[in-house]
Predict the structure.
Amino acid sequence: MPASFQPDIRIQREDFDVNAEIARLSEGRADIGAVVTFSGLCRDEAGALSALELEHYPGMAEAEISRIAAEAIERWPLLGLTAIHRFGKIAPGENIVLVVAASSHRQAAFEAANFLMDYLKSRAPFWKKEHRVDGSTGGWVDAKEADDQAAARWKSR
Amino acid sequence: MTEHPTKLVYFAWVRERIGRAEEDVALPAEVETVSDLLQWLKGRGEEYENALQYPDVIRVAIDHEHVEHRERLAGAREIALFPPMTGG
């Protein structure tokens, strides 16, 4: 097993740079053989959406993602793990979330990134509100049953 | 038991319907579990009734950790009520 390490969890209003985050994890290291990144972006829903407003629960958002990350580190032989989630108003095309998982081999990195996203979607305290191009507020995005099912499938493994 | 004030915090449409982001409440002794709390809050006025009309969909966290509705409140400092999460 690799030495344990602290995952890098950030909840921030500012954008992030995917390449810079990969470099931050892997630069100067020769033990990492695989880096998997997932970026979640804001869609415009066929031109109808002008922005998503992300509300979060300060304190718990960090705590919950840290708990999910700790579980990922326990389950897979990871060498690095970063999760960044933005809040505030985000325009279509902009970044919302980033997960970077590093390991010696690809399978652990793929699975850990997938696991982190599945759990983050159903357990991290964030809520999306839609702002529409016509100036109206589209209301709060409904949680999807499919996201709960995606998280549940990791329990049977 | 819980004579000291407990901080309640609300998010997303729960916050909007109740009309405030947080408040301190003195919970009566008979409010022992999360379910009891949701029932008790519903009786506090129309805005609470509106926000908590379907208690089953409300997610609850005690001191920054998710809990089930059967969880006891004893010792809770901060209780959060919110809809299912839609981050990521």
In short: The mean pLDDT of chain A is 95. The CA atoms of residues 4 and 74 of chain A lie 9 Å apart. Chain A touches chain B through 29 residues (CB under 8 Å).
